[in-house]
Amino acid sequence: MRSVLRLFAVVALAWWSAACGERGGATRLTFSGSALGPEATVVRRQLARFAERYPGVDVELRVTPDAADQRHQLYVQWLNARAPEPDVLQLDVIWTAEFAGAGWILPLEPFGLDADDFIPAALAASRWRGTLYAVPWFVDLGLLYWRTDLLDAPPRSLSDLGDAARRVQSAGRTRFGLVWQGARYEGLVTVFVEHLSAFGGGILDAAGRVIVDEPPAVRALTFMRDAIGRDGFVPSSVLTWREEQARFVFQNGDAAFMRNWPYAWALLQDRSRSRVANRFAVAPFPAGEGGRPAAALGGAQLAVNAWSANPTLAWELVRFLTAPEQMLERARLAAQLPSRRSLYATDALAEALPIPVAQVRQMIDAAVARPVTPVYSELSEMLQVRLHRALSGQQTPAAALREAAREIRALLARSGLAAEDQTP
Amino acid sequence: MIRQARAIEREERRLARWLVAPALVFILLGSFVPIAATGWEALHGHDLRLPWLGRPFVGLANFVEATGDLRFRSALLHTVTFAVITVPLELALGLALALIMHTAVHGRALIRLAALLPWAVPTVVAALVWRFMFDAQAGIISAPLLTFGAVGESFDWFVHPLAAWVPIGAADIWKTTPFVAILLLAGLQTIDPALHEAARMDGARAVRRFATITLPLLRPALIVAAAFRMLDALRLFDVAYVLTGGGPGTATEPLSLYAFIALMQHLRFGYGSALSVTVFLLTFGFALIWVRALGRPAVGDRM
Q1: Least CA distance to B163: which residue of chain A?
Q2: Residue B52 in contact with partner chain A when CB distance is under 8 A
Q3: How close is the nearest chain B Cα to the Cα of A389, in Å?
Q4: Taking a C-beta distance cutoff of 8 angstroms, is the pair A340, A118 a contact?
């Protein structure tokens, strides 16, 4: 009996010291983000280079679900439990305020960052109450794809767009005029944000007051509804479509215009699958009365876990990943747009990106962020439901937005975030 | 002597308790504890995204909020309406299917296999197939309607707030009718053929025999099938989640889906738990009433 115990103790001790040795040898840093297809290649390559630069640091990639909702849920669970890993997190632009407000990510001011170069809208989405909590990593922009074989120039105004769409459609040259993402999900809000901007409206104003029930917003939603119903240049099925369904339709040559993200460019240029290769270009979503051209801002940011065991090292990784060289490599391999403005003037980016940089550059300036608030996901869901009701004819745009505004005000009040009282 | 017997009996009873204990512990851990934990969470204000608000005890505030929540009310209405409409249809179709399976002489095995197939298909897969069938552009259900002019070019099942229920109902009925049929088939097989024989001798026609022999004797099986189906229908989730996601707007959102959204998307654990508890109380309350009202005499007197 005793010999068995002794043997057990020896084995346990050996295992323990081996485990300690492993841990003592290298500092471990974990990075979590999307690693699907070309993104995986980029991330792995760059993490390996970082590890080379810092001998003794072991960088581990923790792959999280590609679906934004699921990754968000996972992060919330980890951070609520104060897990020290992952040290560096890839956040969707709309999550930063939520995580900052909850105290889950570190304020980055103490580390010192030259923020001037970043796209203003992306930088604004990285701040919460004036403090920087994340660094923009890459950006996504809502683009208006238009057919160069059917039209001479991109529409200069929203009514121009409607006229052109109807003209092409009624001449029988395409089945639909314009297609976008109208299913009840986050994509619908980004489409709405572009229409809002076109009419000079917004969801929240600079002081955090709810303005989504004001006349410009009602005009924007009425335009969207009429485009489906009265004017008929948008098919009602868009209310069940996400990005891919819209792309399939445009790719088959069935639409004159499509609102979609940059990822679609390379796929639409693939001659073996696409009927519109070399017959399209991109432009910002045009302005209506009283508004300005807009491109909804999406994309990712990098932040440091507030419970990280090595915050300084984690910050070094953030700085490394957001350096110009890494962004250029990402643009070349994964076609993701850099968040640094200065890169758009370089030949290096022009060579790296599949989309002509000249067309992208004007969209960078038109980028519009979605509301920056810790309760964004719930706010967005309230809006999605009301927008979807109005667009499917269950409510008038004015009534739908009035109720959305009422619900959002109640949400902000309940969360201690109402504009009148800014302290939680 | 008697005292000794009593002692043995006591001893055996103690042993019995020990033998039952492990099973009880598992039941307690497996179902009672999670339900109690959800019930306890439902009494708290707990929003995962607003940790600075803490997790205060709020009593029944979440339930009070639910009664004033229009989305909750319409979800409740959707759930109950869905159950009340689909379950009788499933019972009727299931009964017809069971009678066919019961009376079929040739190819029995093949008929049973064919009838049971939908039940074997995973719900999510089945729902996706139905989604394709109702697709406005290429679906095999929409295309002929469009050709004959029954619907306009712009009609889309999933965009119309009432029409969107049709695919959900169709998928659910298609999927669960075999389950009902199997339960009823088992019931049919317990009916003594001699009863039918005697009735035939007395000159009763098929309809009369069905109404006076088959249906009354099938009552226990029908009650069980209805109870199972009602409980499932009141917890409707996957078919709606896959087919419509609750849309357009929230026109097809059942209670379980709303509870899921409150919990997993809004991350309002307190409120979401309150909604889950409501679903639980709804199904549990139904089961209790159903068993009390119909179950007892039917089970008691026949055996």
Answers
A1: A392
A2: yes
A3: 4
A4: yes
Q: A13: burial class by Cβ within 10 Å (0-12, 13-18, 19+)?
A: exposed
Contact A392 B247 (CB under 8 A): yes
Q: Are strands A255-260 and A337-338 parallel, antiparallel or unpaired?
A: unpaired
Q: How is A245-290 classified by DSSP, letter by letter?
A: HHHHHHHTT-EEEEEE-TTHHHHHT-TTT-S-TTSEEEEPBPB-TT
The C-alpha angle with vertex B228 and arms to B277 and B97, in degrees rounded to 5, equals: 150
All residues of chain B having their beta carbon less than 8 Å from the beta carbon of residue A75 are none
CB atoms within 10 A of CB A60: 14
The answer to whether A70 contacts chain B (CB < 8 Å) is no
Domains of chain A: 27-139+297-368 (3.40.190.10), 141-295+375-414 (3.40.190.10)
Q: What digits encode the pLDDT tens for the residues A157-181?
A: 999 999 999 999 999 999 999 999 9
Query: Which one, of A136, A70, A214, lies nearest residue B265 by Cα?
Result: A70
Which pLDDT tens digit goes with each residue over B278-289? 999 999 999 899
A386 touches chain B (CB under 8 A): yes
Q: pLDDT digit string (tens) for A26-72?
A: 789 999 988 777 888 899 999 999 999 998 899 999 888 877 878 88
Output DSSP code: residue B153.
Answer: T
CB proximity under 8 Å: B 66-85 to A: 71
Query: Which chain A residues in 232-271 lie under 8 Å from chain B, judged by CB atoms?
Result: 232, 235-237, 239-240
**Contact list, B71 vs chain A (CB under 8 Å):** 385
CA B156 to chain A, closest CA, distance in angstroms equals 6
Phi-psi region of A393 (alpha: psi -120 to 50; beta: other; left: phi over 0): left
What digits encode the pLDDT tens for the residues B179-214? 999 999 999 999 988 998 999 899 888 889 999 899
Residues 6+ apart with CB under 8 A from A194: A142, A259, A285, A294, A295, A296, A368
| CA atoms of B225 and B183, how far apart (whole Å) | 6
- Work out the average pLDDT over A199-221: 94
Residues forming beta bridges with residue A303, ordered by sequence position: A89
How far is B75 from chain A, CA to nearest CA, in Å? 13
CA–CA dist B245, A187 (Å, integer): 15
Please name the residues between 400 and 419 in chain A that touch chain B, using a CB distance below 8 Å.
Answer: 415-416
CB contact burial A334-354 (16+ within 10 A = b; e otherwise): bbbbbbbbebbeeeebbebbe
CB atoms within 10 A of CB A47: 19
B61-68 helix and B269-290 helix, angle to the nearest 10 degrees: 80
Chain B contact present for A183, CB below 8 A: yes
| Topology adopted by domain B44-302 | MetI-like fold (1.10.3720)
B109 confidence band (pLDDT: 50, 70, 90): confident
Q: Which residue, among A7, A121, A28, A37, has the nearest Cα to A309 in the 3D structure?
A: A28
Question: Which residue type, as a one-letter code, is found at position A224?
Answer: M
Residue closest to A238 by CA, chosen among A194, A188, A177, A183: A183
Q: From the DSSP assignment, how many helices (H) and strands (E) are in chain B?
A: 15, 0
- Tokens at residue A135, please? 């660094």
